[in-house]
Amino acid sequence: MITFEEAKTRLEVVGQSHLLRFWPELSEEEKSRFLGELSELNIKELEDHCRGATKAAFGQQTSLQDGLHREMEPVPPEFIGGVKRSDKNTLDDWENEGILQISRNKVAVLLLAGGQGTRLGVPYPKGMYSVGLPSKKTLYQIQAERIRKVQELAAGKHGSKCTVPWYIMTSEFTLDPTEKFFRENHHFGLDPGNVVMFEQRMVPAVGFDGKLLLEQKGKIAMAPDGNGGLYRALVDNQVLEDMEKRGVEYLHVYCVDNILVKMADPVFIGFCVRKGADCGAKVVEKAYPEEPVGVVCQVGGVYQVVEYSEVLPETAKLRGAAGELVYSAGNICNHFFTRDFLRSVTQHFQGELKQHVALKKVPFMDEEGNLVKPSKPNGIKMEKYVFDVFQFSKKFVVFEVPREEEFSPLKNADGAALDTPTTARRSLLAQHYRWALAAGATFLDHQGAPLPPEPCRTSQDEDPPVVCEISPLVSYFGEGLEQLLKDKAITCPFILDEVEAEKLLKN
């Protein structure tokens, strides 16, 4: 650990000596902790970070490539697969391949869970959030149970026990509460040895004047380095070495907030494996040209995600011969990587990842030592994105899935127009209602009269006709329900968990 004088000298060199202005007010313990934090700063990297942040935030460095709209091209059809684009036999073939790889212990999932639930208005990690399902299950529990079920399906088909390890990338903010939450819930029935949590790096938040902000009198305001911090975190925590020991060759990477995510999706895994891909992206068809989602495409022959704000309106509105949007592949942060590809990225390309600017409201200590919670953005956070490695792929593929079946993110508190607890809950319950109808169930109203089925109901604007929740431990993605629900008359609210499934099998 460096001394105070060493810290002062180093900070003066890069114009950040203001960080020590409250030094006399700190206790001995606080001073020791602060010096430890300062010791970990790489001064050259810090100087570059502050300079780069201010340049990027104030337009001295453009995020647009010259002539981007002229270099954009859609993903060639031969590199796109999808649920609606493929016949049942092909989909079954991909699913069987994925199930086979899972049964051989070659598949793992990796959750990007470094962010807090700030926009949701809660002080804990987003995965601990409950959207108000009848079962009260949190996002973490739903995802854990989907892993358990897909393991069970693979083991049942191939006659051997198998494991899908769950890697969870947290941050300084989310690691401790996430570990505690999993312990208190007995890892939701998973073997704790197969749930591997690791922490991504934190980077300092920079004020608009290029100065670092203090979160406390003896602590720099820090933020996770974006979900693209994954690649450095894999190295820092020797995660790829752990995967190699377990025999994992394929990785499904996703964000915590999608309540409909298919964990270790066998169809997606099988598609990518059969195509010989080292990198793949799940996408949904854009709902309309101006929808604020990034687009997976090629720019100058290189695959990447182009942010919606970077696409010219006339480009976004381009349509093909059948009336479809030319740039329709909406990115949903749901990816496939081989372990070898990740190894290549960490060894050769990590330093080439683009830095993205985010202007944030960062609480800070003012000159008098008062904590200020700003009402508008006052700080610059530099982030990397997980999808910026597409450009390094030797065989990149895209897999399109129905939005109503696989994508309903939770980002905002209720009251916002989109992506709220209410819309997430409605999406899941509407999906389970469709599954039950497809299995042959009949729902009854409060008077016991049959309700007419409404199979096409997928809107997030209103609740589904009935409340029906199906546990992932009963059905991973709608399979196996016919033997339970065919010709059954069901009164709602209806929760189909393992106990209820046993009862139905006996009747």
From TrEMBL:
Q: CDD domains in the record, alphabetically?
A: UDPGlcNAc_PPase
Mind listing the UniProt keywords for this protein, alphabetically?
Answer: Nucleotidyltransferase, Transferase
Q: Which InterPro entries does the protein's record reference?
A: Nucleotide-diphossugar_trans, UDP-sugar_pyrophosphorylase, UDPGP_fam
Record-linked Gene3D superfamilies: 2.10.10.100, Spore Coat Polysaccharide Biosynthesis Protein SpsA, Chain A
User: What GO molecular function annotations does the UniProt record carry, in alphabetical order?
Assistant: UDP-N-acetylglucosamine diphosphorylase activity
Q: Which family does it belong to?
A: Belongs to the UDPGP type 1 family.
Protein name in UniProt: UDP-N-acetylhexosamine pyrophosphorylase-like protein 1
Q: Which organism is it from?
A: Anguilla anguilla
Q: What is the lineage of its organism?
A: Eukaryota, Metazoa, Chordata, Craniata, Vertebrata
